[in-house]
Structures
1.
Amino acid sequence: MHTGPANANGARRRKLRATLLATSTHCALCGRTLNPDANYPADDATVIDEDLPRARGGNPLDRANTNAMHNLCNRWKSTMTLTEAHALIAAGIPIGSQISRTQRKQVLNTNVGTWNPNATQW
C-alpha cells in the first residue's frame, strides 16, 4: 500500500513521537497530565499534534512544530493553531464542545462584519 507524502517518513515520525513522549508530561492544550498508558483511540491517549497543522502547511517532522496532546484535545483543536485554540478556550469555549467555523471566526477574527483580506481561511 502506498502512503501519501505527509506520511512517507514513518521512521522519523516514530522517533519524534518517542522523543515527545519521553520529554512531555502535560498536554500542550489543556495543561493536564498526560497518560502514557492510555491506548488510542481513548480520549486521554497521548498523540502528537502539529502546532501549524498539515492542512495549513505545517511540517509533521519538525520538532519545533509538534507537541504532545490528549487525543480529545487534538480532535477539538482540528486545523487551528495552538494559539487559536487557546484563544477559544480564553473566550469560554470548552474543549470537546461543538463549534462551527462561523463561531471560530467570530472569536478569532476581531474584524467580524468587515472584509479582511488577511483573515485566516477555514
2.
Amino acid sequence: MKCERCNGLVMAVSFVGGDDARGAWDYDGLKCLNCGHITDPLLMKNRKLPGQGVAGHQLTPGLVAKLNPRASNAALGSR
C-alpha cells in the first residue's frame, strides 16, 4: 500500500496509550515509513461524511476576529 501524502510504503500499526484518568485507548491504523503520516479508521469514516470537509464550514465573524483581527474588518465589510 502507498501513503496518500508522499506515496511511500505504508504498514499496519496498533496504537496504544492514554493510561490516565480518562482511561486507555487503542486502535489500528496505517503509518507511512517514509513521512510518518498516520491514517486510522475514524479518520477514514469522517472523510466519507458529506459536507464535513474544511470547505463545508463557515467562519463566524467572531471567530474570524479571534483568528486574525486585521482580516476581520475585510471579512465583515469594514464597519
3.
Amino acid sequence: MPDESAVCQNELEPVDKLPMSPLKPGKMGLLIARAGAGKTACLTHLAIGHLLKNEPVLHVCVDIMPDKVKLWYQELLKSLFANRPGCDAAAIQHRIEPHRFIMSFMNQTFSPGKLEQSIENLKQQTRFTPTLLILDGLDFDRNDRSVFEQIQDIANRQGLRVWFSARMHRHISDVNERGIPYPAHLIDDLFSSILTLTTEGDSIRLKILKQDEDYNAVTSGVLLDPGTFLLLKQEA
C-alpha cells in the first residue's frame, strides 16, 4: 500500500500553489491585512507547505494562545485533505507534528534576544533546528525599526526564512512611493516579499506588492478559498 501522506504531499504543496516565490534563507516576508482577514490562517497554510516537505517550522505567536494556533493547523489540515481520496488528515497531522514547534510570547515580554535564545535552547535541548520561522502577532506599532533589523540579523545567523504578520488599520491610509502601506511603509526595505490580504465577498484576495526584493505594480491579484487558502482564480 502506498504511503498516503506521501501521495497527499505530492498532490498538495501549498507554497508552490501560490503565485509567489519561496523565501530564501536569511530573508523576511510580510503579510499585511486587517483584523479578521485571515493572517494567522494564511501563515499556517504556508507553514503546512514546509511541514509536508519535512522542513522544521517554529511558529511564534505573540499575544495569541498556542492552543488557538494548534487548532488552526488541525482545521486547515482537515479542510485541505477532507475531500481527497485516500488522505487521512489525522495521520498527516501526526506525521508533521514532530517538525513543528509552537512558542508564545506576550507583546511586552517579546524581544529579539529572547527569540534567539529560545531558538538556541530548542536546538540544544530538543535538537529542533527550524528552517522557517512564523512570527505572528508582533505589534508593529510598539516595535521600531531596530527590532526588525535585529530579527533580520537572527535570520542571517540562523539561516532562517521568516514570515511576519502585520495588522492594517482602516483609519490609517499611509502608503509610501513604492506602494507599500502602513505599517510597513517606513521599513519595507527590510522585507524580501510583502503581501496583502483583503476579504472580498466569499473569498480572500491576495496581492503581491514586493517579491524577491523587487517592487511590482499592484495588480488585481489572486482569489483564495478562505477555508483552505488554495488558489481559486488568478486575474490579470
4.
Amino acid sequence: MSASVPAVSLCIPTYNGASYLGATLASAEAQDFDDLEIVLSDSGSTDGTLEILDSFKSQSRFPVRRLPPPGPGMVVNWNHCIDRASGRYLKFLFQDDILAPDCVSRMVALADEDPSIGMVFSPRELLMDDDARRHPFCCKMEQESGHVHRGWKRLDRLQAGRLLLADPGLVTHGPLNKIGEPSNVLLRRDTLKRVGNFNPRLRQVVDLEMWWRIMGQSNVGFIDAPLASFRVHPQQMSVANSDPLSVIAELKRFAEVVLDADYASAFTETTRNELQRWRRKNLAMQYLYLQYRKPVHWLRAQVGLRESESWKSLFTQRSP
C-alpha cells in the first residue's frame, strides 16, 4: 500500500481537553502498528488544547494532520474526521481516553481476516479519578457500565451483526450500549460509506445508533481483551446530558430512528415493544411528572420511607 494511503486513520476530535490530552496522545504515539496516520480535529478549544496538539504534531513519529476547524458541535466534529480521513480503517480516540499499545494492531489483524467485518470492538476499562469518585452520576456510570460487553447473551469472536440485534436483552438487559464508546471500536471505511456518518439528531446515544446501523449490514468482530480505557469524569458530555428529561428526549429520538430502519426486522418482539414505548413518550407530561417527583422524593426521605415501601406502611408495623 502506498505510504500516502495508510491502513488506519486514528482520529482524535478535541474540544477543551487539555486536562487529559497529554496521556491520550502518548497512548496514540505508543501504538505498535506503524501504518497509520493521526488526524486531529479541534472545534474551538480555548484551554491550551491547541498548543498541546501543535507540540504533538511536531514530535510524533507518525504522519499527523491538523484539520481545518469544523462547525460547532460534538457530532459535527466526529463526522469532520470521518469525511477527511484516508485510511482503510478508522479508529477514534477521544481526548480523555487511552489505548493499549497493541489496540490498533490487534483490531486490524482481526478485521483483515474477513472483509465482511464492518467493525471490531473489545472490552474497555474505566478510569476514575478522585473528582469522579465524588460525583454521584460518575459513580453510577461505574456501577452500570463497567463491563458493557457482558450484557450480550452470546458474544463470539466473529458473528453476524443481525444476530446481536436479535439478542433478547438488547434493550432490556444490562446497559443499552453493549458495544461501548468509539475509543474501543475499529470501523471499516467501506462500511461507513454504506451506512453513513454519525446522526447529528442524537447526542448521548449517537455512537450506539451507528453501531446498530453497522450491525444491520455487516459482521462484527470481538476481541476478548481490554484494549482501551474510557475515562469517567464530571466534565464529560455524558454527565452534561444526564438530566432525566434530556435522557427521555434522547431515547425518544433514538427509538424513532431505529424503529424505522431496515434492520428493525431483526428485533425481537420484546425489543420492539420497549422501543415503541420510548417513542410514545410525551415530553410535556414527562416534564410535569419529573417536577412532581422531586418534592415527593424529598418528603419520602424526611419521613424515612425506603424505596420499596408504600405510604401505607407509615401506619402499619414496619420491619427494622
